[in-house]
Design a protein that fits this description.
The chain is α/β, with parallel strands linked by helices. It is 34% helix and 18% strand. It has an 8-stranded mixed sheet with strand order 1-2-4-3-5-6-7-8, sandwiched between helices. Strand 3, helix 1 and strand 4 form a beta-alpha-beta unit. Helix 2 packs across helix 3. The protein is globular, with a radius of gyration of 19 Å.
Length: 300
């Protein structure tokens, strides 16, 4: 296996474009030495402030074992630059185009490039998939729209609608209690500040709808696999139902799996990502095989 690390937008990261990526490339099998592999571009979660390590390399190895070349994207976060929409999404668009441009060198089939996102990374993947044709990403990257279009999408416990997240998190009246050492802001104030940071504008219903992936789903959306858990309090599963309903109305091939337990952030739920939650891990562990079977059926 070859592991390579690169800056995404040029020879070196810059303040304007700090994104980097790591390529995990399987050695060619002698019997199929010249046969290209499908590829996945992986966007871990982390609340747009960082990227969770357990949703990066372990996921890459899981897909490598299923026959994919894997690319882990370190998109811009609030810790590295301007995380506001559409900057992380532009990073992902550039990464998809970069994989296609280097398909021969990296032994990738350029017509089989999927994106895989978890939590906040799911928002980024869903946004690009829904707006690759109509959104600002092609112009921001200098690429043709068809070069930035994912051929398939896999979303794990994704954030999909800021409005739903806000409403679910503000049901408890205690969120309006003043929080120490924050200048007197309440939990609601802090949540609105976070949303404003991510969407690049005031946290109004109109602006949140404008950047919500569900709002932009059309028949141009690539085939999509979604999984989550019914007890996820971070990214409530109701978002997924709304999202998948929009896929159904648009006639987009899709698959949804909702596991009865697991909470949030379980990644591939194997020995490399485990914690003290064996029962929850066992409940969601089938998702990787289910997702790969879906990708194979749709030809990706």
């Amino acid at each position: 296996m070859v592991i390579e690390q690169h800056a995404l937008w040029g020879d070196d990261p810059t303040d304007e474009h700090p994104a980097t990526f790591t390529a995990y490339l399987a050695d060619p099998v002698p019997a199929r030495e010249h046969a290209p592999r499908p590829a996945v571009v992986i966007c871990g979660g982390g609340g747009f402030t960082n990227i969770a390590a357990h949703e990066q390399e372990p996921v890459a190895f899981a897909f490598l074992n299923q026959g994919y070349q894997a690319f882990v994207l370190d998109y811009v976060t609030s810790a590295t630059g301007n995380v506001s929409f559409p900057n992380p999404e532009a990073d992902l668009a550039k990464m998809v185009a970069r994989v296609r441009a280097n398909a021969q060198a990296w032994h990738v089939d350029p017509e089989k490039v999927a994106v895989v996102g978890f939590s906040a990374g799911g928002f980024i993947c869903a946004s690009l998939a829904a707006q690759w044709k109509t959104g600002p990403f092609a112009a921001l990257t200098g690429e043709r729209p068809d070069h930035i279009r994912p051929d398939a999408v896999v979303l794990g416990y994704p954030l999909l609608d800021m409005r739903v997240m806000r409403d679910e998190r503000t049901r408890d009246p205690r969120i309006d209690l003043r929080v120490p050492k924050t200048g007197g802001k309440t939990g609601r104030d802090l949540l609105n500040d976070f949303i404003s940071m991510v969407i690049g504008g005031e946290a109004t219903d109109e602006r949140m709808a404008e950047v919500c992936p569900t709002t932009h789903i059309s028949r141009d959306m690539p085939p999509t696999f979604v999984w989550g858990t019914s007890d996820d309090r971070t990214c409530p599963i109701i978002q997924a139902y709304d999202f998948v309903s929009a896929l159904a109305r648009a006639g987009v091939a899709h698959e949804l799996h909702v596991f009865d337990r697991g909470g949030h952030g379980l990644s591939v739920a194997n020995i490399n990502t485990c914690a003290d939650n064996a029962e929850e891990q066992a409940a969601v562990r089938p998702w990787i095989d289910l997702a790969c079977a879906f990708l194979e059926r749709i030809g990706c």
